[in-house]
């Protein structure tokens, strides 16, 4: 999964900057080069969606015939887009809690949770994420509002 955002929309935490990039002679890649490299490593099973100069979301689909316990989902609704990897163990309960249908998947739920957070706040983001059970990663991009919401959680029993 790859998400690239223009600096006007998302500022990476300092912890994501490698100390080697400050001292080394090797310059960091431009976003276009990063995306090109990502897609070239998976030419037949990758998907990317660009939003002008603001953002790019990309992921690699599992090979046909191979089994992956980490499903990959892409969903868009009302100019809000979600890339989701993994699964939520309590999706049925969450769908009921948020008033979604039984057939809503994890990406649809995450978009609805983001919309609730955005529209009915002021809830801190951790209030929404703490109710999610499972192993997952997601990136939500609100192209209208220019907001990014992301989380990563690995459940190890």
From TrEMBL:
InterPro entries registered for this protein in UniProt = DUF3700, TSJT1-like
Known Pfam families for this protein? DUF3700 (PF12481)
Question: Domain DUF3700, which positions?
Answer: 2-157
What is the protein's given name? DUF3700 domain-containing protein
Species, as recorded: Malus baccata (Siberian crab apple)
